[in-house]
Amino acid sequence: MTTIHVHRTTTATPEQIVAGLTDFGPGRQEIFGNSAADYLEVHHRGPHDADVTEGSNHIWERLHYDWSEPRRVRMTTTDSNLW
Questions:
Q1: Is-above-0.90 flag for pTM?
Q2: Fewest C-beta atoms under 10 Å: which of 16, 27, 28, 75?
Q3: What are phi and psi of 16, to 5 degrees?
Q4: pLDDT tens digits for the chain (83 residues)?
Q5: How, if at all, do strands 59-66 and 49-56 pair?
């Protein structure tokens, strides 16, 4: 299994980062250009996790988002037409 860690310097607070990553509402494409509105489908959203399909340009993936640990969002691909 491949694991990718992303580290980025920002002025945003950890709470703002988690809020942005876990907002699956309208306007998501404005933050994440590869998450087109017509591909976005939220299958489940709980208080600390979500099951979401997103993508664009005929490429999509289904992800399990887990933000149960403070200051960390773990995204696991569960299905994809790319990998």
A1: no
A2: 27
A3: -70, -40
A4: 788 888 889 999 989 999 999 999 989 999 999 999 999 999 999 999 999 999 999 999 999 999 999 888 999 999 999 98
A5: antiparallel
